[in-house]
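> agent: user asked for a holo structure of the chain below bound to adenosine-5'-triphosphate. Plan: (1) validate sequence alphabet, (2) canonicalize SMILES, (3) run complex prediction with ligand conditioning, (4) return tokens. Step 1... ok. Step 2... ok. Step 3 dispatched.
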Amino acid sequence: MKTIVVFNQKGGVGKTSTVANLMAELRLKGYAVLGIDLDAQANLTAFNKVINPERTVRDLLLNKCSADDVTVHCKYGDVIPSDTSLQNELLRFASMPAFVIRLRDILKPLSSKYDYIFIDCPPAVNQVTAAALVAADYVIVPAEAEYFSAVGIKMIVDTVGQVKPLNPGIKVLGVLLVKYQNRRNLTKSLESVLNENVNKLLDCGILSAKIRFTVDIPSSQASGLSVRDFKSKSKATKDYEDLSDEILKEMKK
Ligand SMILES: Nc1ncnc2c1ncn2[C@@H]1O[C@H](COP(=O)(O)OP(=O)(O)OP(=O)(O)O)[C@@H](O)[C@H]1O
Ligand SMILES: [Mg+2]
């Protein structure tokens, strides 16, 4: 079992889209997949059509139920859902002893059940993202090729650095460029600045797979489908397939 955390404190950079489509790709390849929604916005939950779940990741993190109790079987794999109540617990989590290692301990016994666990993080650095990073084997950082992303990478390095004492094996697989438009000169020049920063700071690079900008992504989400099921010939279908191949290869190293 490998736990892959999709993290960037910046909002709207394609974290949830990446988790949703990677789950679908790996499921298609025959792997047992679990997606954990750690965001109170509950976008991954809604995408997977889990409506008003009785129990959520909040109950799991408060030790009120087991992972099995909270897991919902969905089209693209199992899902541990979230809802807005997660937001109200941040202070309580902060005061709970050893909270940040709790998720890691909860996931350990699931190793016989799943090949891959994907964790969708909120656009924030808080107790919950810290818990995700402590549980992570790998981290993928989706980012847009724009100036502020280069600044954000530095923050991500600091955050990953903070959890390293608790999770020395954590590995950032790379930065995933999303909403990519390779004809834009701006994108090209920023890509090289970003690549330099990433190499220098994260000990990894920009992933070869890039997710191109296409309305097929928002449209597929509106229909509750992976982009492949929505439009198999979409460029994003090819891009997420390439991404899944690349990360599987990387993890076998
Ligand atoms: N490759 C793409 N091309 C066009 N639009 C995209 C692409 N990827 C994601 N989007 C759109 O961008 C918006 C933000 O994506 P998404 O919700 O995945 O980001 P996020 O990082 O999870 O956001 P948040 O930080 O709020 O959780 C969504 O409307 C999504 O449909
Ligand atoms: Mg999201």
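> agent: step 4 complete. Summary for user: The chain has one domain: 2-235. The longest helix spans residues 185-202.
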